[in-house]
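Q: My labmate handed me this sequence with no annotations at all. I'd like to see what the chain might look like in three dimensions before we decide whether it's worth expressing. Could you predict it?
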Amino acid sequence: MAEPDRIIRLKTVLERTGLSRSTIYRKIREGSFPAQLKLTVHGAGWHESAVSRWISNPAGWRPDQEAR
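A: Here is what I predict for the chain of 68 residues:
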């Protein structure tokens, strides 16, 4: 059985990518970074696998890859 995909928060995304908060949100708007998931009214997170795929190939990452 495969392990479930972890949800990581903004602090972890910032540490792993080396990007600033504003750059992450700009890239989400542009469609060049995985969108966050709404977890609560004031909280959001990212699928760890989506961020890892982006880190492995930032220039080649596309949102349509997330459906696979």
